[in-house]
Amino acid sequence: MTTWLLTGGAGYIGAHVLRELLASGRSVVVVDDLSTGVRENIPGHVPFVHASIADHDALVEAMHTHHVDGVIHLAAKKAAGESVHQPLYYFDENVGGMQSLLAAMAQASVNHLVYSSSAAVYGTPHTNPVTEAAPLAPESPYGQTKVVGEWLAADEHVARGLNWIGLRYFNVAGAGEDCLGDRSVSNLIPMVFDALQHAQRPKIFGDDYPTPDGTCIRDYVHVADLASAHVAAAARCEAGNCSQVYNVGTGQGASVKDVMSMIAQVIGRDVNAQVIARRPGDPPATVAAIDKIHDELGWHAIRDLREMVTSAWSAWCWTHGGH
Description:
Blueprint: E1 3-7, H1 12-23, E2 27-32, E3 48-50, H2 56-65, E4 70-73, H3 80-85, H4 87-107, E5 112-118, H5 141-160, E6 163-169, E7 171-173, H6 188-197, E8 203-205, E9 217-218, E10 220-222, H7 223-239, E11 243-248, E12 254-255, H8 256-267, E13 274-276, E14 285-286, H9 291-297, H10 305-320
């Protein structure tokens, strides 16, 4: 069976992808600089390289030592708001890191890549659900770096026959195990939990959008479903001759108020949210068209919003010690 190098494998999404790859029978080696990842997320029997993806030599050595067949590339900076204030940092980390990785892959003759992209490449979609053929109009430096990453992979396909798939994640939530919860508080569900833990009112950023209840609509996908999409993409790369991008979502939108209501149902009390001003750059609605990934990779999400919130709450309580 093949061996895949997983960058960012100690992170929230990476830890789930790691387990799904192992369950598929593949071998995995993790590269992570632990800037945001957690060492304990990597099982002891999995080879671990503590390095930055900017470290070209460390990547080449890892690929040679472990006889790597392909790379799943998750390691990146991902806060869109932060990227607006630190654009050079984001381009250095995300684009520079991608260049370093692709150069190492070329040197080590590694020809399969699954690339972590984002729905941020679309900006504000003209129509929903948004298809992979929609114009790319990112509204943050973060989104721009994800577009450039797709370009680089596509160019390497032309230049040297790289088999690659870009997965455009929509809003990732939930936990596959209690110990693998989302520890960031930049995503909506953990933001609500964090506010409640500190006896604060969770914030809704604007309720005057052109949506049914006035709050932003997003496509939330369970992290365990997202992980299985990576295995489907890896299998497609192994089959050869591919250069494609796919949305990864459920095809269903949920508003911020919908999510707040589900959280209240799951935890058994009103969250008493507070409406404040809009954040700049938040599209009113972004929902994935999912026909392409279903038809070509045979993948679809199987977990709903209740499962995302329930598993996220269980993981939050596990991490933070009780309700």
